[in-house]
Amino acid sequence: MNSILEIQHLSKHYFINKEIIEVLKDINFKVKDDEIIAIVGASGCGKSSLLSIISNLLDYTDGKIIYRKPLTFGYMFQSDTLFPWLTVRDNCLLGLKITKKDYPSKEKELDSLLKKYHLDAFKDKYPHNLSGGMRQRVQLIRTILINPDILLLDEPFSALDYQTHLYIADDVYKLVKSNKKAMIIVTHDIEEAVSIADKVIVLSNRPSSIIKEIAINKHNLNPLQFRKTEKFLEYTNEIWELMNNG
Ligand SMILES: Nc1ncnc2c1ncn2[C@@H]1O[C@H](COP(=O)(O)OP(=O)(O)O)[C@@H](O)[C@H]1O
Ligand SMILES: [Mg+2]
């Protein structure tokens, strides 16, 4: 239907010291233009590799990816990618500058995000003044401000304390839904995946293939509300079982 990208029979091997490490094996899924997909899998199963492949930063070994239209990506890496010599504000605006978007018109949006994510008092500070969780929020703002067709978030809330995590995940969900954009989030956190996604893709251990694709029907509840339901527990239990037997 209105899929913007399709991944078909995708495989990825790495070569280390003449040895082949088989990471991804025959991965297939589609992404619709307004869909939130969460990919869950154990540490080391190839989630970050998959996001890098989708964003064209990393080659794959076999299969193909079909892009139905030219897409802009907003990729938030798992590792800390802030520049130590730039202030919080300039780090936030960096993505816009690189993509040559008109950043002066984004100042208002930036101010509102800084306030919402409790960083406004730090906007003229440098990354070394910030905690890990704060740095992660700066990276998130930088990615959101680009307003891409598809957000690719690699464990974006991992450094946040539990309360902040819940609040910001909820906010990102509302933002993506209100802009009718697509998002792929990878995480090892089953609850995070179930609460935010329209579809959860469960990966096996390496070489990773898809154990199951689960449509999550949230009945129009946002992540915070959905977490309080019986259905949420059922989905998380189902995925937990799959990952432990997969
Ligand atoms: N550039 C690389 N060269 C060789 N091996 C790599 C490289 N990047 C990742 N790997 C290996 O591939 C596997 C999957 O890594 P990764 O995609 O980071 O998994 P995840 O994000 O699920 O933790 C790991 O065993 C990792 O050591
Ligand atoms: Mg990773």
**Over all CA atoms, what is the radius of gyration?**
18 Å
Shape: globular
Report the CATH C-level class of the largest domain: Alpha Beta
Structural class estimated from helices and strands = alpha/beta
Oligomeric state of this protein = single chain
Strand content: 25-35%
Would you identify the regions where 5 or more consecutive residues have pLDDT less than 50? none
Number of helices, counting only DSSP H or I runs of 4 residues or more: 8
The total beta strand count reads 9
Order of helices and strands: EEEHEEHHHEHEHEEHH
What share of the residues lie within helices?
25-40%
Detailed description of the structure:
It is a single chain. With 246 residues, this protein is of the alpha/beta class. The chain folds into two domains: 3-71 and 149-245, 3-Layer(aba) Sandwich (Rossmann fold), CATH 3.40.50; 81-148, no CATH class. It is 35% helix and 26% strand. It has eight helices and nine strands. It has helices spanning 47-54, 88-98, 107-116, 132-145, 162-178, 190-196, 223-226, 230-245, and strands at 3-16, 19-32, 36-40, 62-67, 73-76, 150-154, 182-187, 199-203, 210-215. α5 links the parallel β6 (150-154) and β7 (182-187). α2 (88-98) packs parallel to α4 (132-145) and α6 (190-196) crosses α8 (230-245). Magnesium ion (MG) binds at residues 47-48, 78, 154.
